[in-house]
Amino acid sequence: MPSSTRPSQRDIARVAQVSQAAVSLVLNGKAGEKGIAPATQEKIRAAMASLGYVPNAAARSLRGGRNGLIGVHTFESVFPVAADDYYHEFLVGIEEQAVAQGQDLVLFASTQLPDGTRSVYGRGSNRLRLTDGAVVLGRERNEDEMERLALEGFPFVLIGNRAGAVTPVPYVAADYTAAVAEVLRALAAAGHRRTAYLGMAARRRPQEERLRAFLALVPGAALASSTPHLVEAGTVTGEWVDQQLALGTTAFVVETPEHAGELADLLSARGLRVPADVSVACLDVPAPGSAALGWSHVAVARRAMGARAVRVLLGLLEGDVPPTHVDVVPCLPLRGSSIGAPPGR
Amino acid sequence: MPSSTRPSQRDIARVAQVSQAAVSLVLNGKAGEKGIAPATQEKIRAAMASLGYVPNAAARSLRGGRNGLIGVHTFESVFPVAADDYYHEFLVGIEEQAVAQGQDLVLFASTQLPDGTRSVYGRGSNRLRLTDGAVVLGRERNEDEMERLALEGFPFVLIGNRAGAVTPVPYVAADYTAAVAEVLRALAAAGHRRTAYLGMAARRRPQEERLRAFLALVPGAALASSTPHLVEAGTVTGEWVDQQLALGTTAFVVETPEHAGELADLLSARGLRVPADVSVACLDVPAPGSAALGWSHVAVARRAMGARAVRVLLGLLEGDVPPTHVDVVPCLPLRGSSIGAPPGR
DNA sequence: TTGTATGCGTTATCAT
DNA sequence: ATGATAACGCATACAA
Fold first, then answer.
1. Tag placement on chain B: N or C end, fewer CB within 10 Å?
2. pLDDT in tens, B192-222
C-alpha cells in the first residue's frame, strides 16, 4: 500500500538504507565517477522502482538544473481548439520532435487572461519558468513581453521572424524570399511578362515579407507588375480584375487563401479559365472547399518549423547555439496546376 | 539596467529595507491580516515594480506541494497530430477546462516507445508522477497499467467506461444508453416496427455498450429486430440489405460512420431514398465526405467529456470527489434528417 | 508591527 | 565509498 504522497529521494534512501546523496548520484548517472558500489546502486534502483519514484520537477528547476520539460506558449486564444487552425501544424511538429528527443511538453493553459488573450506575465507569476525553456508562437505576439523575457535571460525560441529586435532571441523563420522567387521563376518560365500582386489589407510581418520579396524579385525575373492591390478579404472587385487584364496582366500572385477563393470566383464569373486564360499562384495553401483548390501554391513548412524550433531550443539549453541564432526553413515546393503559358503564345 | 538574474524576494527586501517575509506577505495580500504598515507596503510594492519582480513558480510549487500541472496521457501513437482524430475533441475539452481552472497541461511526449505506442511506465518509472494528477484516454488503453497506476495511489481520471475494474478509478463515460433510447424512440414514433443493427466486427467497450443498450431497449420501444450484423467495414453486402428489407426492416441503426457510408451507397445503388423508403440512424458522426452526411445521428459529447474529466480530477485532488466517482455525460441530441415514416403508411 | 527560523526536494561540495 | 550540509525562492508559524 504505497503512501498517497509522492516519494522523495529521502524516502528512497530510507528504504535502500543509504544516504539521500547516494540516491541523487545514482539517479544522475554519476555513481560511477564517485565510486558507488554496484550492489548499492542496484539496491537504490530497486527502491526507486518499488516506490515509483519520479524526480520533482519544481525542485530541480529551483536548484538550477534541467527538468526535461519544454514549455509551449502561444498567444492565440486557445490551444488545440481549431483543428484546422493555422498553428495546429506547428504544434504537431513541436510534439513530434519532443517525442524524438524525449522531452515532455507543457502547454501553458494557465496564462490565459480573462479577455482570452494569453500573457506570459499576466497572472503575476511567470509560469514559463517551470520549464527548461520554451517555444513561443502566435500571430498576436506581444513584443514587450518577448523583450522582457529575453532580458530576463529565459531561454526560448520564437517561431516567426524577429529580425531587428533589440534583444537577440533565436528564431525560426520561413524562407519567403526563396518561395516567392520560385513562383516568379515559374511564371517567367511559362512566358508571362506582367503580373499583379493581390494581398490582404492588414499587414503583419509575414505578409510584409512576402510582398517585399515580390517587389524585390519582380525585376530580376524579367516581369512587370502593377501596384500591389491590398484589400480586405471579401472586397476584391471585378473592376480591379478587368483593369489588370486590360493592363496586360496575365498572371496573379495571391497572398492568402481567402483572396485566392475570391479571385477564382471572379475569374470564372468572367468565363476565364485557369490556367488557359489566366495563370495564378497562391502564397499559402488554398482552402479545401474553395474554388482555388488545386491552384499552384507555395506554403510554409509549418511542421518542419515546429520541429526545428525544438531542436534549436535544446541546442540553446546545451549551449551549442548562441542566442543570436536564426534558423531559416525553406517553404514547401511549388505544387498545383494553375500556372500555364499566357494566352496568345 | 536590470540585472541579468531575476530578482528574488530577498532582493526586494534589501531594496525596501524590510524582511523577506514582509515581501511575501504583501505579495499574497496577507499584509492587512498581519498588520503591515501601509507605508511599508507601499515601499515594498515600489521596490517590486522597480526591480520587475516576478514570483518563481518552481519555488512556489516546491513549497506548496501541488504544482498546477495536469498530465494528459493518451495511449494513441501520437498526440495532436491528426486534427480529425477521434480524440482531438476530447483534448480540446481538456484544454478549455484547464484554461478555466488555471492549470497547465503536460503532454507526455517522452512516454512514447520505439514502436510508437505509449506506456505510462515505459521508461522504467512512472513519468506521470511529475504532475499533480492526470487524465488518461485512448482506444488502446492498457488495463494492466491502469490497474498498477490505481494501486500506486496516483490520482487520475479515465475517459471511457471502467465499470467492473478491480481497483476503483474515477471515470467519465458517455451515456450511450440514453442516446440509443432516443434513437429508438424516434424510430418508434415515426411508425417503424422493425429495425436492424449494423456494427463493426471488432468489439471494444464503446461498441458493446451501444449494442447492449440497443438489445435491451428494442423491446420496450415496441420494435422488433434481427440478429445484429457485425462485420468489418468494407464488407457490408447488398445481399444482407436485401434480406433485411425482405424481412420487413424499415429502419437501420448503424454503429460507425464507415458502415453508414457503405450502407448509404448500397441503398442508393438500389434506388432507395432516405428517408422516404428507408430510415437510418447512426450512433456516431457521419464522415464529412461520405454519402451518409446529414443522416440522423447521436454522438458522444467529447468536448464536454474532456472538460468534465479535468473537473473531476481537480475534485479528486481537493478530496471532494471519491475515487469511486463515476461521471456520466449525456450524448449530443439526435440531429439530422434520415428518419421518416416507413413506406406504405 | 516587524523580523527570524524552518522546510519543501534537489544537487554539489566537503568531510569523513 | 558514504554521509552530512548548504543553497535555490517562497510561505508561514512564531518570536520579539
1. N
2. 999 999 999 999 888 999 999 999 999 999 8
